Amino acid sequence: MLGGARALCQALLAAVVLACPFAALPAAASPDESATVPQQAPQPLRPAAGQPLALAPALRLEALGGPAFDLAQAHGVTVVHFFATWCAPCRTELPALARFAARAPQVKVVLVDVAEVPARVRRFFADQAAPGPVLMDLDRAAARAFGVSLLPASFVIAEGRIALAAEGEVAWDSPETDAAIAAVHGSGGRPQGRSTHTASNTASNKASNTESQEEP
Length: 216
Known about the structure:
Layout: H1 2-19, E1 23-24, E2 46-47, E3 60-63, E4 66-70, E5 77-83, H2 88-103, E6 108-114, H3 118-124, E7 134-137, H4 141-145, E8 150-151, E9 153-158, E10 161-167, H5 175-184, H6 192-214
Parallel strand pairs: 5-6, 6-7
Antiparallel strand pairs: 1-8, 2-10, 3-4, 5-9, 9-10
């Protein structure tokens, strides 16, 4: 009887894991725990609920090979990205996040590694550049404060408030993502290419207006 109940529980647990689109945070992360978790297509960032927008939790962590980062000292727009090296969707997403960070230098991107030893994370980034400082959430306190239960998870913070959020891979290469972040906090969240284009259009409009005013 007990054996049959145990088998049923194991079957139900396996069905839940296979249905999960992201990598759930395990009790003790290991390199292969995300191998059986199917990945979902990248999704857009979604506006956070509530008006006024909720204040972001405190976030002050030591960075891997760098100074501590304090979100309270950050201005403009900051992307806080929770990940782990064992998480397959996280590894897939990182190159796109790096491309976004490269074309949007006005936006601060910080990575928060959840519950891994620094040596492991250091080895992971030995072969690829991180798109921003890598913060070490060794005891998961930051992940709990942000309500993170699935990885990857991303939050867009504007002047201390959560404006956009997503669990799972974000479509960092999409124009919709650029537009959503650009709208969060004016020019502080506008990707460089788009910002330059807007500036050139503004200059052209000013020149046209000046010429029209000088005509008799």
